Probable 6-phosphogluconolactonase
Amino acid sequence: MASSPFHFSTPLRTLFSSASHRRLPCIPIQASLFRQPLTHKTLAISTGIRGVPGSGRFCWRAKASMAGTATEKGKGKVEVFDSEEDLSVSLAKYTADLADKFSKEKGTFTVVLSGGSLIKSLRKLVESPYIDSVDWSTWRVFWVDERVVPKNHVDSNYKLAFDGFLSKVTILPGNVYAINDALPAEGAADDYETCLRHLVESGVISVSPATGLPKFDLMLLGMGPDGHVASLFPGHPLVKENEKWVTFIKDSPKPPPERITFTFPVINSSAYIALVVCGAGKAGPVHAALGNSQNSDILPVQMVSPEGELVWFLDKDAASKL
């Protein structure tokens, strides 16, 4: 197969001559790299980074330098795409493949959604070939966080997911676990945790042998420009909550103020987590999490460290500071 041009937003000579290359372990620098057109093939030979022909992406496994805190365990697999369109194609395949794996292994696929632009990035799942090939009857759908508003409210994560995804597939309505929007924030959080505990006891949701917490098959997370995930915001006491599975917030720095959210122990018990981040406005937190940032203030996104696999899906703008 013929090689095709591969593009970086940062000049390659600058990338590999600067201190930034130290975050990519064991990269041999070859002078010939700068005397010939850069292709997927030459990139793979010269750097060890795997370019994927025709996909508009490259990836590497980011490894932590030491173990200890959640931010140092391991940063996961990082995939960078030329465009959000390329990202959405790959995310659909990743999700469909995991759905097939878990459906065959245990008859159910438990997937957790978030709000924001994540639902838009799932749009390829409702197109061919997935719309007809995925066994939607095995899906059980949950939310990592939700705004305490009616389900038909413009701010509702349920409404966002229903309009952009759920209404277009044949997931059974009884397998979609939205919050009780008739309850206040604290009651809604307690009710959702009670629901999760029942589903764990009945075997619908798996249990982590390590923690005894619910082990969702796939958690699809977005990230805010301040580095928040779910409704866990920088500097907020809830990032340290380690007793409850689901908790509530009444003073969210991002409106609306009242929300419910999974806590980090539940998030990090997941079998797979996909962190989907697009846009230059989020490049700073991405660099803090994956680069050589020396900032002592740990962002919530840096606390995402699942028992299983973590994959970052980034467009080139979000990765522009790496």
